[in-house]
Write a structure and sequence with these properties.
Helix content: 40-55%
Strand content: 15-25%
Structural class: alpha+beta
Distance between the termini: 37 Å
Radius of gyration: 11 Å
Order of helices and strands: EHEEH
Shape: globular
């Protein structure tokens, strides 16, 4: 396992979308939303196994973010 703390860009999302995304990420096994940056431009995530942080970000983009945007927009 390669635990890491990574950031995830949420610029362009509404507060509701950020909330939904952060809770959805925390429901994913091995991943927890630790904080929302004060400027609300990124989330701080703890990932239990992240050998490639960029792959984690792409996975969130292609699954959770896409589904939330399909629901909210």
């Amino acid at each position: 396992l390669r635990p890491r703390v990574i950031t995830y860009d949420v610029r362009g999302l509404t507060l509701t979308e950020i909330l939904l995304l952060s809770h959805s990420i925390s429901l994913t096994p091995g991943t927890t939303t630790v904080d929302v940056a004060p400027g609300r431009d990124h989330l701080v995530l703890h990932v239990l196994d992240a050998p490639d942080p960029e792959a984690v970000r792409e996975d969130i983009d292609n699954t959770l973010r896409r589904a939330i945007l399909a629901f909210t927009r």
